Amino acid sequence: MLNYVWLGLLLLGIGAAFTTDIIDQADNKYRNNEPLELTLLFADYAGDFKDSTYEAVLSISTSRFNKFYNTNHQTDITIPARISYSTDKQEHPFYLSIQDDSPEIWKEIAAANGNKDDIIGTIILGQQLEGNKFLAEGVLEKITFVKMKDVTAAALDYAGTAVNIALGLIGIMALWLGVMKVAEDAGLIKLIANMLKPITKRLFPEIPTDHPAMGSMIMNISANMLGLGNAATPFGLKAMEEMDKLNSNKGTATNSMVTFLAINTAGLTLIPATAIAVRAAAGSTNPAIIIGTSIFGALCATIAGITSAKIIEKFYIKSWKFTDWLKQNFKFFLSALLILAVIAIIIISGLYSSLAPMFSFISADSFKNFIEIVSALAIPVLILVFIGYGAFKKVKVYERFVEGAKEGFKIAVKIIPYLVAMLVAIGIFRAGGAMDWLIYILSPITDLIGMPADALPMALMRPLSGSGSLGIMAENLSVYGPDSFIGILVSTFFGSTETTFYVLAVYFGAVNIRNTRHALPVGLIADVAGILGALFIVRLLFA
Known about the structure:
By secondary structure, this protein is α+β, with helices and mostly antiparallel strands. It folds into 2 domains: 31-142, no CATH class; 152-542, no CATH class. Helix content is 65%, strand content 10%. It has helices spanning 2-27, 62-69, 104-112, 146-186, 188-195, 197-203, 212-225, 229-245, 255-266, 273-281, 290-313, 322-328, 330-349, 352-355, 364-392, 397-414, 416-431, 434-449, 456-461, 466-480, 485-496, 500-510, 519-542; strands at 36-42, 52-60, 77-85, 92-97, 118-130, 133-140. A 6-stranded antiparallel barrel has the order 1-2-3-4-5-6. A hairpin with a 2-residue loop joins strand 5 and strand 6 (133-140). Helix 8 (229-245) packs across helix 22, helix 10 (273-281) runs antiparallel to helix 21 (485-496) and helix 20 (466-480) runs antiparallel to helix 21. It is elongated, with a radius of gyration of 28 Å.
């Protein structure tokens, strides 16, 4: 199914960009070749102009600017300018220096030219008003296909980002797979797996309890819960590699792989450290207040992800395609969808006052302190215990560590093509403006369940991009305040869900899985459940 999703992201992103550019060109959004009346105040005018470069301050009234560009800028524009004056020409080149408070449309023009700091144009000097002040008419450089240029830039940027991510994983992968190799040879992983056998046997019935995959999955889930993402990814990739050894149909995801990724895409973390840090930087009086709400949302996502994985795998057909499955199980799918919609509307639209006392016990401070201590000690203690236990069992720890580290290097390099493909598609989808279309389409549904329109971009971006959702969260915190309802809500969204498309691309890419079966629908169900759970608990406690 990832084939269709990947192609859909590309087509929607490019299609949205092309459509937007055609509309902008027809409306002449950037006023190409149209003169704008403005005023120039020269700093070094001495009574006459010579062939030279002059520094000036360009100013335009709000009303004139808004009428010209059909915008809603709030203040008069005053901006530094540089004019290259030539006595034998009527039109003179000029450069505007874009500032933080410059109009958004001018920032777009500057970015479209590949230089975010300057705008180029030509100017004709008019009547001298008083002293060094002159009327003038300026024509800015011609701007076309802004969105398509954004798409091109995004594709190149995200391709580089994907490679940097993969290369950044090499050291981490080498470290943790080296440590895991020592623990595996010492029998420690098998011991841990046997302790959790009652749970893992039900979640992953295809995998023997003493198989190395089981230990890697346990370590991955534990690291995720402690917020140790750097440790969780190597464990997860190792788990996928071990599960693939049991896979009789290479290239096709097994039920255990799908269930494992459902748990990963649910993003259950006891302390969402990144969201807390961003909230603290934004000036929150209680940055850790989202711990309880994030755990609640992530629990909803985890339960929904595991449940949907177990249910959908029962309806699996041999040559699994989502469209075929949907046709054969349409009544079941429709009934389940209607039931979920009714439950969601009931939960979101009411019952707050009656349920609020049940959650009055939530206090984040003591829980936060405990988890912070565990998180700080977890990595050093894990290395010490695993290596120490290996030495105690007479394992040649150095040789086995190096052997495991070699595997980590190979896996990190192997995922680069898959990561490039997925991140480039996501970047094009975002830059092309398809995300804005999706928000417009889904707004009636989110209005029905009580989700603020300003929080919807965060809910939609979180499954696609970690950095993108982080940027949206930071923007919302700066606009509405970190302790506002929207500020707490978007922070909880970040802590309650995971970047589903990134996880699928990396984990399946590590073992060359092309037929992902129902992994993507399960991951998206977990995301929706996490978002709804986060919305419910935040509205319950903070609305």
